[in-house]
């Protein structure tokens, strides 16, 4: 397949590359072979060859091609409550709303119905890769894997481990540390058997919910499993004042250091939120090449602060974006990249007349787009997120409903990212195949 159209891809968090009328050649395995600009010597020949072979797909002039977005933090089971109870503090929201909902996923019909809808919704929002938290139920998590595979969403899925009786309800917890480890290991094998040779087959993820919900034995056991199977790890870190303080009270150190102690900070780890990390914690993550999932909408409700994204990017911490459904109400990374910019300006300028804010906190829309594409891809060590030879063809095609003949390519890029509605995301591709059409 060969796509021809106006494309944008991030170079780094300061720069994008505009590719006018780029010819994007995708091989039969769904990988981008070549990206040619009209000035390239081979362009005309490649164009004509594609046309003759009926492989050419011309993207109309009022549409642009972006890499598909990478969502680093979604709680799949929380989709039915996205947009509910966000005026509650974190602990109350978890205990009164979230745990009762997640417990319902022992009902596989319910799981099927929710996960079918969620996977479709994420693709429709231009998201092509998702790092999912599931529930404690291996079977329901497999249903999520089946739905993802069936609909063509690239996923990584974690069976949530939570066994600390002090911080989890009796109706929704692992009965023991051993039970948590055995269920996690079983799930790894089951998920690995799903869609074995399919390049989109879901990847299992070691998933301690967060430090408060796990006993020491479970944290240690999960660290061993991550090493034994060389798997990605995901959790929450320093999300709120309460969570940050909890680790200090129980261990005398910060939760980032606790995760490190148990072997859970690796170059394949993604930690959500991180708003309360100290500079030392940030340095530890940097040293371990552990990534942060920045969840700007969710952090506004539960984060007790705004993540210093600009500092983290400057220091070369790995950062991507997450919706955190349902701590964040929106399944759209477009909404989140807009909030990431807006909140960075609040951090920069302060919250009142007497508050001078924190200088150099602003990020641009380019940086936000970088987080949603390259940042996420690098956090997961996956060859996606760029329109470039050698990367997998996970793409979205977006309609621009306004004509602004005098604006520059850079201005058009920014405006489209601010103004795109879900209904204008026309086509979504994963591994070179169209998996969604408006
Ligand atoms: N901390 C532990 N569990 C959760 C969760 O489900 N959502 C959020 N936002 N934070 C958490
Ligand atoms: Fe979360």
Automatic annotation (TrEMBL):
UniProt organism field: Limosilactobacillus alvi
Entry annotated with the keyword Oxidoreductase: no
Protein name per UniProt: Amidohydrolase family protein
This protein's record includes keyword Glycoprotein: no
InterPro entries in alphabetical order: Amidohydro-rel (IPR006680), Metal-dep_hydrolase_composite (IPR011059), Metal_Hydrolase (IPR032466), Metallo-dep_hydrolases (IPR051607)
Keywords, sorted A to Z: Hydrolase, Metal-binding, Zinc
Domain of life: Bacteria
Cofactors (names): Zn(2+)
Amidohydrolase-related domain boundaries: 64-404
């Amino acid at each position: 397949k060969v796509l021809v159209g106006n494309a944008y891809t991030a170079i780094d968090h300061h720069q994008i590359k505009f590719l006018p009328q780029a010819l994007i050649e995708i091989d039969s395995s769904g990988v981008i072979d070549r990206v040619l600009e009209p000035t390239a010597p081979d362009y005309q020949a490649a164009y004509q060859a594609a046309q003759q072979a009926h492989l050419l797909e011309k993207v109309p002039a009022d549409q642009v091609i972006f890499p598909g977005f990478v969502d680093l933090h979604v709680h799949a089971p929380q989709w039915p409550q996205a947009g509910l109870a966000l005026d509650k503090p974190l602990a109350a929201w978890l205990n009164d709303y979230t745990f009762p909902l997640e417990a319902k996923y022992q009902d596989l019909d319910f799981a099927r119905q929710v996960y079918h809808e969620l996977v479709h919704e994420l693709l429709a929002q231009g998201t092509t890769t998702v790092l999912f938290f599931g529930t404690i139920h291996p079977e329901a998590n497999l249903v999520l894997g089946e739905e993802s595979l069936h609909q063509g969403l690239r996923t990584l899925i974690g069976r949530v481990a939570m066994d600390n009786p002090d911080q989890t309800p009796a109706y929704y917890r692992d009965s023991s540390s051993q039970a948590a480890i055995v269920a996690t290991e079983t799930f790894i094998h089951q998920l690995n058997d799903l869609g074995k040779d399919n390049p989109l087959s879901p990847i299992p993820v070691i998933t301690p919910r967060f430090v408060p919900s796990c006993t020491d034995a479970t944290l240690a056991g999960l660290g061993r499993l991550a090493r034994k199977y060389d798997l990605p790890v995901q959790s929450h870190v320093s999300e709120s004042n309460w969570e940050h303080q909890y680790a200090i009270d129980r261990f005398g150190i910060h939760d980032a250091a606790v995760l490190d102690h148990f072997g859970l900070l690796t170059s394949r780890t993604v930690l959500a939120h991180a708003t309360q990390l100290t500079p030392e914690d940030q340095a530890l993550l940097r040293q371990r090449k552990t990534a942060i999932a920045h969840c700007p909408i969710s952090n506004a409700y539960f984060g007790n602060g705004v993540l210093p994204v600009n500092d983290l990017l400057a220091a070369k911490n790995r950062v991507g974006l997450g919706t955190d459904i349902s701590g964040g109400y929106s399944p759209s990374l477009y909404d989140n990249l807009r909030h990431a910019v807006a909140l960075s300006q609040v951090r920069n300028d302060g919250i009142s007349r007497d508050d001078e804010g924190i200088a150099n906190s602003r990020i641009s829309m380019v940086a936000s787009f970088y987080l949603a594409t390259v940042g996420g891809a690098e956090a997961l060590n996956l060859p996606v997120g760029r329109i470039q030879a050698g990367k997998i063809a996970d793409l979205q095609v977006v309609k621009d409903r306004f004509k602004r003949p005098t604006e520059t390519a850079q201005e058009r890029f920014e405006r489209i990212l601010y103004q795109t509605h879900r209904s204008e995301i026309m086509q979504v591709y994963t591994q070179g195949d169209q998996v969604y059409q408006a």
